[in-house]
Amino acid sequence: MAAIAVGAAVVAAAAVLLGGEDAAVVVPPNSVAMIDPATNRVVDAIETGLNPASVAVGDGVAWVANVEERSLSRIDTRTRVERRVALDATPTDIATGFGAVWVAYGIIGDLARIDAQRNVEVERLDLTVRPGRGSVAVDADRARVWAAYLDSTVARVNPATNGVEWRGFEGAPVSIAVGGDSAWLANRSQASVTRLDAQTGVEVKSITVAKGPVDVAVGGGFVWVANETDDVVTRIDPDGSSTTTVPVGDRPTAVAFGAGAVWVANRGDGTVYRIDPTSREVTKVIDIGETPVGIAFGAGFVWVTVQGR
Prior knowledge:
mainly beta; 5-stranded mixed beta sheet; 1 helix; globular
């Protein structure tokens, strides 16, 4: 059981042209930055554990997966007070839903359910015998939790019973997102995104994207893919029939949707890009500094995890 432990010149020019500006708050390594979408400014930086990566927000709490420390940072979104929750394995991704934070342990192929109120692990599912990077997503509409692992395992879990309803897939997914009637898997090695029917798990279509897809998000009527190698974000129509690309910063590593915009964390140049989902235009470049890694929207803010260079 887990227990509480208290705890470049081109980019600069682009920022000027697009109205970018330095962060209002200095963001140190091993922290999570809060961006106010109304002003596009960093309003706070909260200390986390070592090497924060994935971030998820739900029910008044921002959760951060601290990879090197094997812990979660539990941050009250109102008071911004951080407490540490110790883990016994390395978290590779997290998601929130159904009164829990779901933690993918990609290295050992497990999925842990942690009670969001008691901060203790209440269930551990062994999803794969061939471990690899793991990703997790919550499908609020259909009341399911999805987990994907690099070894070609995708599983759908019923949170009411903690039972695995479906398991399959052929590929090497590094990220998963669920929206409407589909689950979307980013396949880095194939430079593609796979669309699954969220009810049956059957593959509907494979869509070619730019090189190095590492993260996927759903929002604004589209699917968004961060492509780390080609430094672009791919926009996919809901039916997967067409794609367009948006140039972003150096090494985009995470993408999220919120406040009517697409947000992209670029780890190579220390920036966050804001994209208008309809026009596909970059409307703001926000200088975070250091190495932004994970990004999420919740409680009225954009949350960006930051590691040291």
